[in-house]
Amino acid sequence: MAELLIQLYNVITYALSIYSILLVIYILMSWVPASRETKFGRILEKIAEPYLGFFRKFIPPLGMIDISPIIALLALRFIGQGLAPVFNFFLRLL
Predict the structure, then answer these.
(1) Which ranges of the sequence are coiled-coil (predicted)?
(2) How many angstroms separate the CA atoms of 58 and 37, rounded?
(3) Structural domain for 15, as ranges
(4) Cα-flanking dihedrals φ and ψ of residue 14, to 5°?
(5) For residues 36 and 7, what is the distance between their CA atoms, to the nearest angstrom?
(6) CB–CB of 19/25 below 8 Å?
(7) End-to-end CA distance of the chain
(8) Per-residue pLDDT for 81 more than 90?
(9) Rounded distance between C-alpha atoms, residue 10 and residue 18, angstroms
(10) Which of 29, 57, 74, 75 might form a disulfide with 35, Cβ 3.0–4.6 angstroms?
(11) Which bin fits 22, alpha (ψ -120 to 50), beta or left (φ > 0)?
């Protein structure tokens, strides 16, 4: 059971890392508007926009600069770091 929890933790942290990379790519694609019109850009939009949209509801842009993606990436990072103590707690119970 402990091995299963460790593997689950590894899968979740790996998925969060991949999602973070996809978010960064999507954010960088905003600098080249035509890139979002590609098939890859539309797929990334479907993946990234629901998560980023949540933060855009609460964090208004500062002039021309949208800082919500930075906060979204930080939140994703904190979630990933917060998983370690939770999984360690459950491992100690076993």
Answers:
(1) none
(2) 27
(3) 2-83
(4) -65, -40
(5) 35
(6) no
(7) 8
(8) yes
(9) 12
(10) 29
(11) alpha
Q: CA quadruple 6, 12, 14, 16: dihedral positive or negative?
A: negative
Comparing C-alpha atoms, which of 23, 12, 14 is closest to residue 55? 23
C-alpha distances out from residue 46 to 26, 73, 89, Å: 10, 17, 35
Run of H or E including 13: helix 2-29
Residue 71 has a pLDDT of: 95
What distance in Å separates the CA atoms of residue 2 and residue 31, rounded to the nearest whole number?
45
What is the domain count for the chain? Answer: 1
- The answer to pTM > 0.85 is yes
Report if residue 89 sits inside a domain. no
Q: Is residue 12 part of a domain?
A: yes
Q: How confident is the model at residue 63 (pLDDT cuts 50, 70, 90)?
A: confident
Identify whether 91 is part of a domain: no
| Backbone phi and psi for residue 31, each to the nearest 5 degrees, phi listed first | -75, -20
Residue 43 lies in a domain: yes
